Amino acid sequence: MKRYPPELFSSEELQEAIEMAEQVKFASIHPLDGTLCDPVFAPFVCTNRNNSAIFSGHLVRSNPLLEMLSHGPLACRLVFQAADGYISPSVYAEKPKSGKVVPTWNYVACQFQGTLEKVPDHGLLNLLAHQVSVFEQAQGSEWKLEDAPADYLEQMASAVFGIRFSPERCRVHKKISQNRPSDRRAVIAWTKTLHTPFKALAHWMNNGDDG
């Protein structure tokens, strides 16, 4: 039986997965016990604690994960989707020669398997302040929690709860035309001419190890 995902398109490099997650910042949460039918979506920031990566975020209190986490830590999978897009076979060199080409879909993503837990309520404001600092810096803006009135901030914070995820395993998924090395430059050039999501795909392809 062939390996899936193919080794050419995946790796278990933790640092690469963390760097991708730090760039994407937005993930879906999937409890491994299957009790939650719908995925939960949330932004995360990554910090290093005792040489280990920790992802922290927050969710609205009406989220069913609050009840699940009230019973203790939960085994979960976090998935960060970096970029994806359709690749037309019209850009392949073989197309005018024999016509023996078909389309494909390139994608870049990473996933972590580990433990999700609720952050104690007394640590929520520090978590939110750290998230805001990271996200504001990424946008080149300067808003801080303290800029909001204290009573209003307390009211808004009471509607959410903090979460912390400790990864134990990871996998990086990068299907970026590694199986067509002679066509990669043409595919990258083509994706750069398209709209924004494809430009993101071109970025990952251009910085791929096999580029």
Tags for this model:
Pnp Oxidase, Chain A, 6 helices, 28% helix, 8-stranded antiparallel sheet, 211 residues, alpha+beta
Walk me through the structure:
It is a single chain. By secondary structure, the chain is of the alpha+beta class. The chain has one domain (7-88, 103-180): Roll (Pnp Oxidase, Chain A), CATH 2.30.110. The chain has 6 helices and 8 strands, in the order βαββββαββααβαα. It has helices at residues 14-24, 65-69, 124-139, 150-157, 184-192, 196-206; strands at residues 10-11, 26-31, 40-43, 45-49, 52-60, 74-87, 104-118, 160-175. Strands 1, 2, 3, 4, 5, 6, 7 and 8 form an 8-stranded antiparallel β-sheet that branches. A hairpin with a 2-residue loop joins strand 4 (45-49) and strand 5 (52-60). The two termini are 29 Å apart. The model has no long low-confidence stretch (mean pLDDT 90).
Quick gist of this model?
The chain has helices at 14-24, 65-69, 124-139, 150-157, 184-192, 196-206, and strands at residues 10-11, 26-31, 40-43, 45-49, 52-60, 74-87, 104-118, 160-175. With 211 residues, it is α+β, with helices and mostly antiparallel strands.
